[in-house]
Specification:
By secondary structure, the chain is an alpha/beta fold. 43% of the residues lie in helices and 15% in strands. Bound molecules: NADP nicotinamide-adenine-dinucleotide phosphate and guanosine-5'-diphosphate-alpha-D-mannose (GDD). The site of NADP nicotinamide-adenine-dinucleotide phosphate has 26 residues, from helix 1 and strand 5.
Length: 324
């Protein structure tokens, strides 16, 4: 029988890659699609899957939308990727972030509980929950200490996922994913902001790149690898929580250097530090321990940071040349 999946946040970076993965596996894929005045479907077009994803209009903050999406999709598997996911914005819109990123997950859990409690649920948890890190390498047992309204909202959603699993026996799993990037990354996130600037500088359209704290360190992987871990979690007999990471951490500075070097430029001649991009509270360093995911899911990050940076710069140059 054809499996049916519902993906919230289907128009986002991960939603698009996950939808492609599920379609390739023969799933019928439904996507919750929040109405916007502007075009948000470019990623589904980029992967050439727009006509194969069944879009269901709705918003995560609206319980009726989540219930209706469960009824219409008759989903066996639900991947909750929808969120206000930009950390910096969460200080400007803390309440909206709480509604979408925190309560939105509960709206989805309630919809499942009311319509089909046997459906399997994936929650997009995050390394931001570790925030001010309590251990040098973060695993499933590391205590949480979120540092932003986004991290706090995600932690609420994370514990609600655990709670629905323990209270109602639901197959609800949480993937604690560290940063993952791709050519489909939103332009506001630092890796894509950098590759966009590298291409524009190389093509003579821009001179400088303004950044905030370039000493921050992140454990960066490739989104195409990470969506496989999401799917694997829902194929397990029992629900659980998993850290998904590469096990290597790099400064924003070095990530930048790699991208500029791809086109023969020196980042030091173009990067300008701008206070505007510093955050009220910073997550200085993240480094994940993916041992449990490797052992239980057989999952491993396969794309090195250098390969990822080259892939993103090349895609950006291609875009730049196309746009003229
Ligand atoms: P993204 O590109 O920002 O995508 C977020 C998605 O959520 C978009 O499709 C967006 O729709 C949708 N959305 C926003 N508000 C909504 C609402 N009120 N109702 C329904 N949908 C709404 O994020 P991503 O990088 O793909 O990440 C996917 C998920 O993983 C997010 O929950 C993120 O917080 C989490 N996560 C990401 C990372 C990472 O490094 N990428 C790491 C850990 C966890 P529009 O396009 O219409 O705005
Ligand atoms: N965005 C941005 N822009 N970040 C900058 C800049 C800048 O100009 N300059 C320095 N940074 C630093 C940030 O302060 C942060 O330490 C780091 O670069 C990464 O920032 P982002 O790319 O915005 O990602 P993030 O780590 O805050 O959050 C992402 O990863 C989380 C998982 O750890 C998002 O995808 C979250 O949704 C996700 O949960």
């Amino acid at each position: 029988m054809t499996k049916r999946a519902l993906v919230t946040g289907v128009t986002g970076q991960d939603g698009a890659y996950l939808a492609k993965l599920l379609l390739d596996k023969g799933y019928m894929v439904y996507g919750l699609h929040a109405r916007r005045a502007t075009d948000t479907l470019w990623r589904l077009r980029y992967l050439d899957i727009l006509d194969r994803v069944h879009l269901l209009e709705g918003d995560l903050t609206d319980l009726a939308s989540t219930i209706r999406s469960m009824v219409k999709s008759e989903a066996d598997e639900v991947y909750n990727l929808g969120a206000q996911s930009f950390v910096a914005t969460s200080w400007m819109q803390p309440i909206l972030t709480g509604y979408v990123t925190g309560l939105g997950a509960v709206n989805m859990l309630e919809a499942i509980r009311l319509t089909n409690p046997k459906a399997r649920f994936y929650q997009a948890s995050t390394s931001e929950m570790f925030g001010k890190i309590q251990e040098p390498m973060q695993s499933e047992s590391t205590p949480f200490y979120p540092r932003s309204p986004y991290g706090v909202a995600k932690l609420y959603a994370h514990w609600m996922t655990v709670n629905y699993r323990e209270s109602f026996g639901m197959h609800a799993s949480s993937g604690i994913l560290f940063n993952h990037e791709s050519p489909l990354r939103g332009i506001e996130f630092v890796t894509r902001k950098v590759t966009d600037a590298v291409a524009r500088i190389k093509l003579g359209k821009q001179k400088e790149l303004r950044l905030g704290n370039i000493d921050a360190k992140r454990d960066w992987g490739y989104a195409g690898d990470y969506v496989k871990a999401m799917w694997l979690m829902l194929q397990q007999n029992a629900p659980d929580d998993f850290v998904v990471a590469t096990g290597r951490t790099t400064t924003v500075r070095d990530m930048c250097r790699i991208a500029f070097e791809r086109v023969g430029l020196n980042y030091e001649q173009h990067v300008v530090i701008d206070e505007k991009f510093f955050r009220p509270a910073e997550v200085e360093v993240l480094l994940g321990n993916p041992a449990k995911a490797k052992e239980k899911l057989g999952w491993e990050a396969t794309t090195k940071l250098e390969t990822l940076r080259h892939m993103m710069v090349d895609a950006e140059l291609e875009r730049g040349r196309r746009e003229g």
